[in-house]
Amino acid sequence: MTSTGFRTERTAALRAWRFVALAAALTFCCPAISSAQEAPPELEPPVATLDAAEPPQRAITPQERWEWMVDGILAPKSLAAGAAIGTWQTAMKSPDEWQGSSGFAKRVLTNQVDNGISKGIEGALGALWGEDPRVRPSGRRAFGRRLGYAMKTVVLAPRADGRLAPAWGRFAGAVGSNVAKNAWLPSRLTTPKETALRILAALLGRLATNLWEEFGRDLRRSISRRISPPLS
Known about the structure:
Elements: H1 3-35, H2 62-74, H3 76-91, H4 100-126, H5 143-152, E1 156-158, E2 164-166, H6 168-181, H7 192-227
Antiparallel strand pairs: 1-2
Helix pairs in contact: 1-2, 1-4, 2-3, 2-4, 3-4, 4-6, 5-7, 6-7
């Protein structure tokens, strides 16, 4: 590798680690932000919501917000997910500018930084107005209502009073993390169009997570019944 190439690699790595530090700072500062707020009491059913058909949910506490951020960034399943995505991207040679073992490391690190910044911004910023970032099932029975809830809670999130409102913290996290990645991604992937597509992909990923949370248990139960039929 030429000295110019080495300096470029080192600069990209330093930028990535700066964003890791930013995500960590947001995560560890979140308890201070949240503790400045009074812990929300157990809620009675709200009088008026954006969708009165939805069941009321208890507001997130500062401790639960902190745990959501830490688990979402550092829990083994989150780290494993980043490694799995990096493995898939390596198999698909995406981006193809990143070759060899260093390319795999860049992909995994990029996924972890992306996740850390996104969760850090969503959790810390959303604490200012009580936005609940957690993925929670609707508690409804009808398929259409459950599907609708999973879809609309991509762009809406519960507030402390139980009503659904725009998920500004989530939007900020998706935008912030994907703009940050432009600091080290290949230049062809840093255009406004490519950045917008990655933001859209992040929101579609949230939809997939919502659908799994809403219907995953039913799917597992159905598969279990097919594999292990009742004893006669």
